[in-house]
Specification:
Blueprint (H helix, E strand, L loop, with lengths): L2 H9 L13 H17 L1 H12 L11 H34 L9 H18 L2 H10 L5 H6 L1 H15 L5 H35 L1
Helix pairs in contact: 1-4, 2-5, 3-4, 4-5, 6-9, 8-9
Length: 206
Amino acid sequence: MQQPLIQALRHHGLSGGLVYLNPTEPFNLYLEVGFVAGLFAASPFVFYQVWLFIAPGLYRKEKRYVLPFLLSTVGLFVAGGLFGYKMVYPASLDFLIGYGQRFQPMITIAEYTKLFLTIIIGLGLIFEMPILVFFLALMRVITARWMWRNLRYSILAIFVVAATVTPTTDILNMCLFAAPMVALYAISIGVAWLVDSACERRAGAI
């Protein structure tokens, strides 16, 4: 977890790592790292419980999609976490440390862990957007046509959300958050279109 910080410090000619101000912080750090690792490791079970909650409201033919549902939800969650760890978090740290280069950094475990968890878990959940759209389209709450018609407003909302959750105030990091969300929205339109087509075929057969 310290690797992005160490690399960012070295990039700006600085050394060091995390420090703590309270004797309990290192202990809490291991608990929080264990929580994150456990969350990703247990995600198949967690999403299976979500499926069990949703399944009673589905048709019998739709209940057979349990395996694709689990593979897609777990895959997207892990992909979001990896994207945050490999792309967003290092870029954010590099900008923040470079911006404060005139000062001596003393980054505490508690604050660093809070930032880390916000980005990694937050992006993991954001990457679940196509799955959410799938079920909303299945319940006829939204359609692909409606999503396309409101594309400009959706992109505006995405950038507002990205500006809110990004840990920095620069445009680059906001775009790093917003870009995958826009791509996921485009994928979600395709998902909604497939669901709409399937529902129309089913209605025509009836």
